[in-house]
Structures are given as C-alpha cells and as structure tokens.
Amino acid sequence: MSDDETVAVPEQIAPDDLLWRRLHPKHVVPDTLSGGDRISSAAFTDPELSVDLARLVEGNDFHVTMKDGAGVAEFSASAALDKKLPVEHAPLPDNYAHTHVLGKKTESIQRHLTRSSDLLR
Predict the structure, then answer these.
(1) Cα 7 from chain centroid?
(2) Which of 22, 38, 75, 92: disulfide with 31, CB 3.0–4.6 Å?
(3) Domain limits of the chain?
(4) What is the mean pLDDT of each run of 10 residues along the chain (121 residues)?
(5) Phi first, then psi: what are they for 22, rounded to 5°?
(6) pLDDT of the residue at 100
(7) How many Å apart are CA 117 and CA 79, to the nearest integer?
(8) What is the DSSP string of 9-69?
(9) 115 DSSP 8-state letter
C-alpha cells in the first residue's frame, strides 16, 4: 500500500440507521390497489444486497444513490437485523456509504423487506 492510500474504517450500523437500495426499473411495478407504483420483492434477492448507509451519502440526498435507477427503497437496518440478516458497512473506493445486507433472502424475508420499505423518487 502506498503512503497516499487510506484504508476506510467500517462504520458501526445502528438498528435505526436508514439504508437506501437503488431500484432497477423492473423492480418498480404498478400497485393495483393504490393506482401508483410499489417496490417488487424481487429487489431484495441478492445474498450480498448492496445498499447505501443513508447518513454517509453526500448531502444526505437519496438522488445520489438513485443515479439512473427508477427509485430508491428506504428501510431501516432493523428490518434486516430483525430477520437475523447481518448489515455490514463495506466501503468502496468511489462510495464510502456502500453497505451489504448479507444472507439468504427467502420469499418471506423479501416480502418483509418490501413491506418495510418506502419508495423514494
């Protein structure tokens, strides 16, 4: 490691920390009950689910996370922790806020995360 490289120290995740998941357009689907859109549970299948730790996102602006996505799913870390899914800060060189929600996401866990999320646009 060169002298000008720094190692990012992982942040501790609190249950009340908000997590932001960028949504692919196919993960935002019509909601026939409300007439609006909702988050598909398919947005929560990855065993190393990439999210951003909201308090670390530049300007605390979810649009930074959204970039070219169709929206952002916002949920608290407790939604994952309550289902025994580890939440670990995993900073990337270009994204210090990057975090993982680890573990197998069964259909019931996917539905739980979906119900626990707000769609931000």
Answers:
(1) 23
(2) 38
(3) 18-120
(4) 62 98 97 95 98 94 86 98 98 95 98 98 92
(5) -65, 135
(6) 99
(7) 9
(8) PPPPPPTT-EEEEEE-GGGEEE-TTTSSEEE-GGGG--TEEEEEEGGGSGGG-HHHHHTTS
(9) H
Q: How far is CA 85 from CA 32, 33, 47, 75, 121, in A?
A: 30, 30, 10, 13, 26
DSSP state of 96: T
How confident is the model at residue 9, as a pLDDT?
83
Residue 6, token pair as written in the block? 């720094």
CA-wise closest residue to 14 among 83, 63, 87: 87
Dihedral angle sign, alpha carbons of residues 8, 85, 74, 40: positive
Rounding to the nearest 10 degrees, give the CA dihedral for residues 48, 8, 16, 103.
20
Structure tokens at 88: 């670990």
Token readout for 112 is: 């739980």
Q: Which amino acid is at 121?
A: R
Cα 24 from Cα 87, distance rounded (Å):
21
